Amino acid sequence: MLEAEFWEAVRGLPVSRCEYFSSIGSTNDVVAAWGQAGATGLCLAYADEQTRGRGRVGKNWFTPPKSALAFSLLLDPTPTLAPNLLGLVSGLGALAVCEALEKLYGLTPQIKWPNDVLLGGKKACGVLAEAQWSGNRLASLVLGIGINVAPASVPPPSQLNFPATCVEAVLDKKADPAKLLRLILERLIALKDKLNDPYFIESWERRLAFKGETVTLESSAGLIKGVILGLSGDGRLNLRKTNGEEQVLNIGEIQIRP
Ligand code: BTN
Description:
Elements: H1 3-9, E1 17-21, H2 27-36, E2 43-47, E3 68-75, H3 85-105, E4 110-112, E5 116-119, E6 122-134, E7 137-148, H4 167-171, H5 177-191, H6 198-206, E8 214-219, E9 222-231, E10 237-241, E11 246-249, E12 255-257
Parallel strand pairs: 1-2
Antiparallel strand pairs: 2-3, 3-7, 4-5, 5-6, 6-7, 8-9, 8-12, 9-10, 10-11
Helix pairs in contact: 1-5, 3-5
The chain binds biotin.
């Protein structure tokens, strides 16, 4: 997206600091540094290209120029910390992207817990929520979102561990990245103070991919197989394992494999 289109897309939004980068390492690192330097209120960094985009569990995130949406928000740390705060914030990002894609293009995206947005069963968006601590105090809360818009943003198959797609491949026409960004930001702003509202978890659960299906979860403790039952009130995943036991999983080193 060109810089002028970006400024038009964010016009009038209640952000206290907002910057456009034609190329930067990672927008998550940019807003985390703002947080360290004492920034407050909702801050937004957007990049047309990321040279060191980061994904979950130490993976790279591919953001070539003029093909994707890549941005990060610095959120004011909440005074009361939910135990699964990063999980909830990841869900916030994924849900806002789903709602925007539904409204703008009539698509039916799904959320592969905890944070991937799927279109037609393939990954089109990833969310990386990160917290920085200063002793016991949450110093900054960062929500980074990357969306594959044009085909050039889809990584080569050798770099994928889950099939990927992009918005334009699903629509079979050009997308309007500025309109999509605007809608996502509006939904994020509307939802960010509702993380404890039943509407938030219900909306997330309604879009949960593989619900009722048997999946294998790759955790740091090994593989867990079971049926996805749904979400708990704080965004953790409820699973019924093959031995009949129920387990509640926190966001962590977990990858779902159908
Ligand atoms: C994942 O699916 O592994 C998460 C990907 C998150 C990518 C976004 S793009 C904007 C922000 N900056 C980063 O370096 N990562 C996030």
